Amino acid sequence: MKTVVFHKWWIIPVVAVLLAGGCSKSETSTETEGYGTLQIRLEPDAMISTRAEIATSPVPSAEEFSLTISGTDYSQSWPSIAAFNDSQTLLQAGSYTVEISYGKPADEGVGKPYYYGSKSVEILPRKTIEESLTARIANAQVLVTASESFLNYFHEATFTVTTSAGNRFTFTPGAETPDEAVFVEAGTRLTLTGKAKLQSQTGAGFDRDYTFPKQQLEQTVARTRHTFHFDAQDNGSATVTINLSDKYLDERTIDVELNDNSQNGNNA
User: Fold this and answer.
1) 82-134 pLDDT, tens per residue?
2) Are 216 and 191 in contact (CB under 8 A)?
3) Of 18, 39, 86, 166, which is the most exposed, with the fewest CB atoms less than 10 Å away?
4) Helix (H) and strand (E) counts for the chain?
5) Cα gap 40→43, rounded to integer Å
6) Alpha-carbon gap, residue 91 to 150, rounded angstroms
7) Cα(207)–Cα(260) distance, integer angstroms
């Protein structure tokens, strides 16, 4: 029978390797046991309030939304939801606020919506939490329109809306190409001015310049289209109706003197 002899110089390194392996596994478990991960699903909501709910555009894709997660002594941002989901970022167990956004709240113009959404989430140890967030339009819109009756009395009408930021947008009701609603910052003032040609009662043609009284809307409302709608109900007056939603309707009467010799509201 052969006798197997174990030499000390062989046993010691093997034991050291086994001990090292056990220590590494224990440390890895300790480092991750108080952490979890998060996966975000986006639900964009493009609806905006007028006299009824309508969808507006553009509707950005999930890849276009940036994401920020903040908590106690923690704040980090990612350029997109996809980038965050792919990163498998470990988050220490606890409460966080997740914010998603597209665009900038102060950007104004056609096709410049600002979407925003936020949600509180709870991260659990060694768990992957799945959360759905809804991003809604958080800025406002403005549009100027006119009725057919108004356009029968006033011709070549142009209106300018000036925002609190000093941006100016021109609207031409009755033009061959309809105006698009303009996105403006929420919670700010709008000032409307306008000019038109007023039909002459002496048969001289549409050659009387008319300047409309300035109109102001003190505060725009988020996720709402503010429509200045002009109408002419009779030969002596016109109205401007400001529609904010079904719950708010502000109608203002503008007296218009059709006598050719009158200077009321006109630039002679």
Assistant:
1) 999 999 999 999 999 999 999 999 999 999 999 999 999 999 999 999 999 99
2) yes
3) 166
4) 3, 18
5) 10
6) 61
7) 10
